[in-house]
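Give me C-alpha cells for this 224-residue protein.
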Amino acid sequence: MLIASPATRLTASIQLSSLRPWRALFDLALLLTVWLCGHAPCTAQGPATGEVVVTATRMGSALLVEARALVIAPNAVIWETLTDYNGFANFIPGMLYSRLMERRGNLARVEQRGESRVAFVNFPIQVMVVANEHPPHRIELKLESGNLRQLEGAYQITPQPGENLDRHVLVWKGIIEPEGFLPPLLGELVLRSNLEDQFRGMVSEIARRAAAATLPGSKAQAAP
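Here you go.
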C-alpha cells in the first residue's frame, strides 16, 4: 500500500455553468458522500472477513484515518506483503512507483510516487518515508520528505482467538496532512477514498498470496 498515499495539491478545474464554484464543490462532495457510504461501511463496526472498514476524523488541516479488515492468512504472508515495498505499484491502486532505497537493520527508506483521482480532482503525491519494522506484528511509518506536511502512522497485525491460527485483524492508523488547503468535505472524501482503495488493494493481495500458498506444489505445501 502507498504506505500512505494521501493528497496534497489540488489541480482541479470544475466547470458547472449553472452553479457558483463553491456551491458546485459542495454539491459534488455531497454526491460523493452518498456514493461512498453506499459502497463501503462508514462506521467503525467489526469487519467481516475481507471487509474493509474505514473511519476518518478531521483534525484542523489534518485527517486522522483508521482502516481495518479481518484477514485469513498466515502472519508470515501478511508481513511479507506489507514489506514488499518494491512490489506495491503492482497491487495498490494509485501507486505509480515504490522503491526500497536503503535498509539499516529494521529501518527501511522507501520512495513512493502516485496520485489520487476522484471525479474532477487530481491529487499527485511524491514522498520518502521511513518504515520502522517490529516483526512480526507492527510497522511504524513516518514521513522523511515530500509534498506532505505530515504523515505518520502504523500497521498492526493482531492474531484473533480461536482454533484458526490464520485469523488476524489488520489495522492501519495514521494522520495525514497535505501541504496545501484541504477543501471541506471534498478534500476529506478524496483522502478517505484514496486510503480505502489502497488498504483494500493490500488486503486483496494478502488474500491472493494466502490462497496461492495453499496450492499443491507451492513452497508452503512443500515437504520439509
